Here is the input.
Amino acid sequence: MNKVRTLLAIVLVGGSAWQSASAADANYARNLAATCFTCHGTDGRSVNGVPPSLAGQNRDYLLKQLQEFRDGKRPATIMHQHAKGYTDAQLSLIAGYFAAVTPGRAAPAPAAR
Ligand code: HEC
Here is the structure.
């Protein structure tokens, strides 16, 4: 019986965590986009444009590129691997996040200042 209760608690807690994640789309979008910061710079402002800055790019353009990388339609060295595994809804959130960022100069990571 205790096992059933524990399982039920896990399902309930897990379920409500998921609900609040989708309710807080802005945070969810940022978390997804943060996986791109390593290469494309914090908030998509890349260092000297390599790889290209994503900050302030057109949302539809970004979404199309990501879908084409994922579906193998746009040749790439890295991005075809990186774009795999995302749903259209997730790619749309990521594209929307970067489109909303004001373009600007890349800032060094806090540890490097
Ligand atoms: C490991 C480094 C790396 C990571 C992580 C990475 N990218 Fe890229 N990205 C690249 C490189 C390199 C290119 C140039 C295309 C290629 O050769 O893959 C690129 C190209 C792109 C382009 C095309 C830009 C243009 O102007 O056409 C988009 C859009 C893009 N990346 C989005 C993303 C997004 C969104 C993420 C996170 C989900 C991400 N990238 C994560 C390295 C990375």
